UniProtKB/TrEMBL annotation:
Record Gene3D superfamilies: Periplasmic binding protein-like II
Main location: membrane
Name this polypeptide is given: MetQ/NlpA family ABC transporter substrate-binding protein
Compartment(s): Membrane
Record carries keyword Nucleotide-binding: no
Length: 264
């Protein structure tokens, strides 16, 4: 696959196919954690005559801004709770088109082998965005470190913590920065795909994982409503979901810490 690297204001453009066909190409935005299997899908699509431009963003805000502005046709990096919160904050008219994978999220530590060894006042890092932060708080409750108000679910906030027996200090950081925080804190919420990319420790070494049965956390292909009948999009999603080459790339990228959301 021909790949041309070009710096853009909102990310890095990975161009699959010739520039002469760029106007007809499906423009797909993603983040680094999901890019490798998508690159394989782009290559498979090219074999079938479909040109796709894969645009890699460095944060979790720009992909929705770019999609809402019409700079890309679809993005793939977020689950429905994250999308709904982004729509609320940004006023975007965006909808989920098709399911992708669902990944485990875990609690990791480089300093402790069990939750019982966490000291009083331990520093614990979770995501600072409203949705992934709620997922982190749910994990802390599952670990027995805190108790949350009944029924708050993924919408949990720090003010919803009703008990904290070890008086842990909960620090909120950008989700993509959590892997770097592990050298500084006792425990951190972690995303195995980012940990694998960082290469700092074993992504399967979490003290606790959440379940992959929470379908609200399935990563979605997201579009503007007027693109729902785009045949290029339909063809690409079919390739992503059913190509043996893409499945092998997903296994390589995520190991055992994911499930295909379209099969669950």
């Amino acid at each position: 696959m021909l790949k041309t690297l070009k710096t853009l204001t909102l990310g890095t453009l990975l161009v699959a196919g010739g520039l002469a066909q760029a106007e007809q190409a499906l423009r797909l935005g993603t983040t680094a954690a999901f890019a490798p299997p998508l690159e394989v899908a782009v290559a498979e699509a090219k074999k079938q005559g479909l040109e796709v431009e894969l645009i890699e963003f460095s944060d979790w805000i720009a992909p929705n801004v770019s999609l809402a502005n019409g700079d890309i046709d679809v993005n793939y990096f977020q689950h429905v709770p994250f999308l709904e919160n982004a729509k609320k904050d940004g006023g975007y008219d965006l909808i989920p088109y098709a399911p992708g994978v669902i990944n485990n999220v875990g609690l990791y530590s480089k300093k402790h082998k069990a939750f019982a060894s966490l000291p009083e006042g331990a520093k614990v890092a979770i995501a600072n965005d409203p949705i992934n932060g709620g997922r982190g708080l749910q994990l802390l409750e599952k670990a027995g470190l805190i108790t949350l108000k009944p029924g708050v679910g993924y919408k949990a906030r720090l003010e919803d913590v009703t008990s904290n027996p070890k008086d842990i200090q909960i620090i909120e950081l950008e989700a993509v920065q959590l892997v770097r925080a592990l050298d500084e804190v006792d425990l951190a919420q972690g995303y195995p795909h980012y940990i694998r990319l960082a290469g700092t420790h074993d992504p399967e070494s979490a003290l606790l994982f959440d379940g992959v049965d929470n379908r609200e956390y399935i990563i979605q292909f997201v579009i503007q409503p007027e693109h729902k009948n785009d045949q290029r999009l339909k063809k690409f999603v079919d390739i992503y979901q059913h190509s043996p080459q893409v499945r092998a790339a997903l296994d390589k990228a995520h190991g055992k810490l994911y499930q295909p959301g379209w099969e669950s």
